Amino acid sequence: MTTELSHFINGQLVKGTSGRFADVFNPATGEVQAKVPLASTQELDDAIASAAAAQPKWASFNPQKRARVMMAAVQLINRDMEKLAEALSREHGKTIPDAKGDIQRGLEVIEYCIGTPQMLKGEFTDSAGPGIDMYSMKQALGVVAGITPFNFPAMIPLWKIGPALSCGNAMIMKPSERAPSVPLMLAEIFKEAGLPDGILQVINGDKEAVDGILDNDTVQAVGFVGSTPIAEYIYSRGCANGKRVQCFGGAKNHMIIMPDADMDKAADALIGAGYGAAGERCMAISVAVPVGDETADRLIEKLIPRIEKLKVGPYTAGNDVDYGPVVTAAAKRNILGLVESGIEQGAELVIDGRDFNLQGYEDGFFVGPHLFDRVTPDMDIYKKEIFGPVLSTVRAGSYEEAIGLAMDHEYGNGTAIFTRDGDAARDFAHRINVGMVGINVPIPVPLAYHTFGGWKKSGFGDLNQHGPDAFKFYTRTKTVTSRWPSGIKQGGEFNFKAME
Ligand code: NAD
Question: Which of 154, 193, 168, 199 is nearest to 8 (CA)?
Fold first, then answer.
């Protein structure tokens, strides 16, 4: 039976009234398991209005009180870890350990938000002039919105909800219509943790809801994560409407393998970073750049048996599975179409996953692992984000050529170098024009107390996600200059007459 999902408005799960729905699939079986309501502009505007009504009281709480809600939410998310992971895997397709990692990385940002009182402390200058003090405070923006992608249905909503709410804002969370259940479950958890009604509204929807957010004057800021074309659209329309906007887009992450690298470690790293979560990670490595033909040959030789051992299957198969299906049939078609283009444009398909078939799951959206060698920068498989289990190898003649490739690519989310040479590693970290860099670390996702964000076409706006930047993004600074020239204290003596 197909479940009808809800929105979460004013502390309650409520059915949609627009009459429009999207199918939510179980990617392992290909079945429609739920219908998610797609909000109308009216439903959205009503939810924004009630968030705006609830927000001032929430912002007036002392920050420690808001931090206590975060503390309670951490306990409850841990309590519900298994349930959340199962729901996440069922809609997304990723394995249970991957789903738990998704939740855990979000949880760490909520843990960081327990330090909100410290993060919101202002600045004070004593005696900036005669009788004058100056102080700055960080105040909530009001109602803010988060628009998130399908591939991290827990982590990315939590990256937005935690800091936005801790700063005293109310949030409209518009999750991906392809994986909406976990954000709804998280909203219920925050309510149980003591969050007042109306402060977190989960509004499911598509372009209509997104445009409604961008055009609603009450919404002060928008944080988006998703593909680059939508990031650019949201950034320009949101900014044109006078909002504070940060958008994080797609990626094409290069890993450079130097001749002196530990080749076994580099190959192991590429297996996890290239094929984990079926390649549906913005920090996945999709391009391997071995330096020198000999390095390339050694690398390919190490990769082949490892890729052949990869087990692809449904999350219900437990630890026997390395990665699951991709999210929809359309995503599968797109990946296989790009694989065909790679072959047509002359790349060498070393491992061909096109005919992958899983008995009993013939209608699931599974894609076998692919490995390309001799990919060149003019090919579509190099230029475009594939977002699937397809690793491309571009052979570079020198370190300069390798770093040049990563620097010239339009995306700049993450990158890595594998080497034993400290000079090369240091030069790479210093020169590369990419936001997150790994040295012998393939997926360099910064921890909660640092910030996460890409450069070039992977990030729009000037502040990153989580860490100290999030507290800047979700507050605005007010600076007060105050003079008390009352003459109360003159020449070191109190003038009691002036106090009368
Ligand atoms: P997407 O761009 O299709 O969707 C993201 C959000 O935008 C969803 O909530 C969706 O409903 C909304 N949306 C989609 N089309 C829209 C339209 N025409 N107008 C207005 N809103 C629209 O992205 P996705 O497929 O869900 O996620 C995968 C993408 O996200 C990949 O490109 C991946 O690299 C990227 N991503 C980036 C990061 C990062 O931090 N840079 C993190 C995770 C994912």
Answer: 199
175: CB partners within 8 A, 6+ apart: 148, 153, 157, 182, 183, 202, 204
- Ligand 1 atom with minimal separation from the 148 CA: 9
CA-proximal residue: ligand 1, atom 39 (nearest) = 248
pLDDT in tens, 351-397: 999 999 999 999 999 999 999 999 999 999 999 999 999 999 999 99
Q: Whose CA is nearest to atom 40 of ligand 1?
A: 248
Pocket of ligand 1 from Cβ distances under 6 Å = 147-152, 174, 176-177, 206-207, 210, 225-227, 230, 248-251, 282, 385, 387, 413, 454, 458
Q: Note the Cα 436 to chain centre separation in Å.
A: 13
| 3 state DSSP class of 247 | strand
Contacts of 172 (CB under 8 A, 6+ apart): 44, 47, 48, 51, 143, 144, 145, 146, 201, 203, 213, 219
pTM above 0.90, yes or no: yes
For the stretch 158-189, pLDDT in tens is 999 999 999 999 999 999 999 999 999 999 99
Cα–Cα distance, 367 to 289 (Å, whole number)? 23
